[in-house]
Amino acid sequence: MNIKSNLKYSKTHEWVEELDNNCALMGLDDYSQDQLGELVYITLPEVGDAVTVGESYADVESVKAVSDVFSCVTGTVAEINEELVDSPEKVNEDPYGAWLVKVEEISAYGELMDADEYKEYLSTL
Amino acid sequence: MKLIFERSVPGRRCYILPKCDVPFEDIPDDMKRQKALRLPELSEVDISRHYTTLNKQVFGVNCGFYPLGSCTMKYNPAVHEEIVGFPGFQAIHPLQPDHTVQGCLKAIELLKVRLCELLGMDSMTFQPAAGAHGEFTGILLIKAYLRDHGGEARDKIIVPDSAHGTNPATANMCGYKVVNIPSAPDGSVDLDALRAAVGPDTAGLMLTNPNTLGMFDKNILEITNIVHEAGGLCYYDGANMNAIMGTVRPGDMGFDVIHLNLHKTFSTPHGGGGPGSGAVGVKEILVDYLPGKDTVKENGEFVLKEPPKSIGSVRSFNGNFLVYLRALAYVLSLGGKGLHEASQNAVLNANYLRVLLKPHCRTSNEGICMHEFVLTIEDLHKKYGVSASDIAKGMLDCGVHPPTMYFPLIVDEALMFEPTETETKEVLDESAEAIIGLLKQAATDPEALHKAPVTTPVGRPDEVTAARSPIIRYMDFDA
Predict the structure, then answer these.
(1) Nearest CA among B181, B258, B213, B219 for reference residue B376
(2) What is the total count of domains within chain B?
(3) Is B68 part of a structural domain of the chain?
(4) Regarding beta strands B202-208 and B156-160, do their DSSP bridges make them parallel or antiparallel, or are they unpaired?
């Protein structure tokens, strides 16, 4: 399982990368994409939408099922990765390159783990 | 094989019309279509062969064991077809005056009364054409009732995470916000989570009981009580009604509205896109809101009347009449005792199959199940890389229709079996033996299972490409 050391992770297997100016990128981690299987569809929020810690802001569809994607932060959607709408397979190919949204004006972070903690958490599943 | 459009030859027909013996009136030019209809042109024998070939390539409940979980793929008795073939039921029109179709209206009334008795409800509508359509109707009824009783601000429907996917979709389509609550490990409703979720904004709860793990919720009375005390109404997803007929009634459990999948529990044709029938039963408080027209007796005759506060029509006329007429044939031929026995045997068959398979694979829950149970292939998946999908594909080679896969979502690598009461012990024994063979093969030859099925007309379709870039219409239609 590929876990990147500069990212933080949620228990529901999303990653978040803190950026300057109170912004962050969020995406699905390697464990998520492996469990979901090949993605066939992604629904992203719109720029300007509010996202809240622990609440769903997007959904992804695989051949098996549709699953919610939960937010690691509370803030406002600044950018969405439109490329994923036509090419959801990018999440499978490069989960850490294929960010879903960039969030700005972040007011709260959820309970997150660093890479080592996350590795340990995965070993308990 | 070729599509029927590819067999088409211009001008080929399968009829010879007699000469017109009335004055010919042509349609005005401005009302005529400008392009010919794109219909295939074939002889009768071509059409017959085309569909017979297709028929040989599909698998239905008439071909073999079909334990598709939560779908209740029971056999449809042939006597139903005979009854719906009666000219008095066939050669009628929904706009005919009521006094000329008294027999049909009586049949509707009879089914309504019998099903209400079975459900513990006060009235029914037969307009909805399928289960999800019934759900949609039921939640609209709750919405109309709340609107008239000071509950307009109630904007949330509670749905447990073990629910059928149609439940949250229905609530959303009706303009409600969905509150998802986690289940306890056995799939039952977590009472603390429910108590925390209800409040002055609760419009209602949608619940499937027995749930998708095949467990009857032991707290059912407390669940409906919590929702009612908060001022919400309770919706019963009757998809799993086949487990409880004649044993316990949703109305007595405290539910205000229920839909039945007549094409599941009541043995009307099922699959292939319908036509189905998602009849909805309601308690007294919702009767005035029912859609369409109700059968009412006036001066010794049945008439169709719109309920005073009706939510309007959810489908044309009286719904799929010939479909729910089959349900009446089923109810009358089995009788109350027979329906009860059907449910008992459905539960017995599920438990028999569960006990046969259990030594070879983990089940999602311990103990007795209702009409269905869930296996998890998680261990085989981790050890040998054989997934639930691989086992399901292998079953196709054994002449058994696969169970439901990857549902419910709360179980990893799930396979959900519902044998129904119509299968014999011999069928269950043979099928169990075949499935156990596959579970063993996972350890010895996983590669073969990755390649299954090898005996079916179509092997493994590329599901990912089919979902990502589907070709959804015949190409020449673009021209």
Answers:
(1) B213
(2) 3
(3) no
(4) parallel
CA dihedral B253, B162, B376, B368 (to 10 degrees): -10
Question: Chain B residues with CB inside 8 Å of A65's CB?
Answer: 406-407, 409
Which stretches does DSSP call E strand in B132-230? 156-160, 177-181, 202-208
Considering the entire predicted model, what is its pTM?
0.88
Query: Does B158 score more than 80 pLDDT?
Result: yes
| B100 plus B186 within the same structural domain | yes
pLDDT in tens, B264-297: 999 998 876 668 999 999 999 999 999 999 999 9
Q: Taking CB atoms and an 8 Å limit, are A64 and B405 in contact across chains?
A: yes
Which residues of chain A does B468 touch, with a Cβ-Cβ cutoff of 8 Å? 40-41, 88-89
- Assembly ipTM: 0.72
Same domain, B270 and B372: no
Cβ contact A66–B405 (<8 Å): no
Residue B236 CA to residue B257 CA, distance in Å, equals: 6
How far B464 CA lies from chain A's nearest CA (Å)?
6
∠ CA B17-B23-B24, nearest 5°, is: 65
**Residues B282, B127: Cα–Cα separation, whole Å:** 14
Q: What angle do CA B414, B419, B422 make, to 5 degrees?
A: 165
Q: Residue B409: which of A38, A61, A65 has the nearest Cβ?
A: A65
Identify the architecture of domain A8-110 in CATH: Beta Barrel (2.40)
Closest CB to A38: pick one of B165, B407, B464.
B464
| Nearest residue to B203 via CA among B238, B175, B166, B239 | B175
Same domain, B426 and B356: yes
User: What's the confidence (pLDDT) of residue B251?
Assistant: 98
φ, ψ of residue B372 to 5 degrees: the values are: -150, 165
Task: Indicate if B255 and B348 belong to the same structural domain.
Answer: no
Percent residues over pLDDT 90 in chain A: 88
B406-420 residue pLDDT tens: 888 888 899 999 999
Contact between B184 and B340 under an 8 Å Cβ cutoff? The reply is no
Residues B450 and B310 in one domain: no
Flag if A64 and B406 touch (Cβ within 8 Å).
yes
Q: Which domain holds residue B160?
A: 79-334
Give the DSSP letter of residue B242. G
Please give the structure tokens belonging to residue B430: 């043979």
Contact B200, B153 (CB under 8 A): yes
Residues of chain A contacting residue B464, judged by C-beta atoms under 8 Å apart: 38, 40, 63
Spatial distance between the Cα atoms of B56 and B383, rounded to a whole number of angstroms: 37
